[in-house]
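Z., the sequence and structure:
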Amino acid sequence: MGLFSTVKKLLGSDAATAMPSGGQPQELAQQPVGAQTPGAQTPVVQMTDLSDTAPTEPSQAWRDSLAAALSAGRAKISDWLAVLLTDIASPGPQLWARLRFLFATLDVPGPEAEAFIAEFAAWAQAMNLQKPEDLRSELRYRLILALDLEQEQEERTSIFQKLTQGLAKTRERFSAGLGALFGRTGGLDAAFWDGLEEIFIMADMGSEATQKLISNLKTRARSMGVTEAARFREVLGSELEGIFPLPKKPKVAAAPEVVMMVGVNGVGKTTTIAKLAYRARLQGRKVLIAAGDTFRAAAIGQLEIWAGRVGAGIFSKAEGSDPAAVAFEAVDMAQREGFDLVLLDTAGRLHTKVNLMEELRKIKRVLDKKHPGAPHRTVLVIDATTGQNALSQTKLFHEAVGVDEIVLTKLDGTAKGGVMVSVAITHKLPISFIGLGERMEDLRPFVGEDFAKALLDD
């Protein structure tokens, strides 16, 4: 019985929706991909570190507890972790033994289980995971992606809680004004609409988006038959849920899929690339990172380090090299060596007289010539804390190179989360991921319905 058929049995009928496209099982984890550039090698863990010679535990009750959790009819990752990490404060032989038992019970092939454990051990060593909460968080994320459980209700709830926390400052700015507005007696008069407009502007939605949203809300209120301020919260919630378009699945005729990452310097593009590579690796994809920002030696060096940490391949050339040549040669390498995904970094600012947008257009032409259809996605990274500057960046990049989707970073800790609404209304671009913290697992898929609920629910 394969990995996904076992998980399907544990999940019940809902598991069918969690299967990859085509219903084909994907590997739990692949062997790390060696880096091309010196200094960017994947961390190596000696097998002696992962031996079965774990100290004798006082009790083997955890085996019965884990077996019971696995046979409960639903895959609840929190129950698994509660057993796996009982009395374990740091990674080591006891944890490896418990993970082997988990994977054996799930009928995961031995080599895949050992690859998972080896990579987790390497990451724990590289990132110095010693705190129990860090260990739990990292292991949870890896198991969820490896077993394709991200859409399960338990994990959706966990992501929603993180989103709610991340929107705390934006929500605080919203809720004070909205609470007073929705608590008014009377109807949706001019004073009500003026008050709502002021709240939206203060939340950094911008004038143009605010006017469009107000117009849409008036139409929706009429269609829902809402005429009282006390009932307007449901009107606003319904509108916010519907304004965010879903990302389109790219058409990739032949591997690799090429994703071109764009954005100005300082928005978190480098770490976003690392986090996307990390996700893809944990989902079983062979990833190549291409260091196309050749105007910043620091950017190249950072990507080489991150590629080594997350187990991705790296292609880079000397500082000052032609970025289009980097893109061309990286895709050539990916085709020759069987990579599934290429994440191409690009410059956010040039130290020459060359126009940045023309340079990006040149890269796109070269990619399409080398690999017809590439880049299959152009992803813009914007920083939520910059508010309306993020909106102007979206306009600039979208007009120049055609943005397919947006990753919004640094959403946690900002009161300017309203820029998400502004981007969606003004440019009708999907937001695919949002950054809710510094950890790898804090880059999460964006769900408009959850955003509306986290922002407005009491």
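The chain is about 50% helix and 10% strand. The chain has a mean pLDDT of 83.

Let me know what you think.
H.
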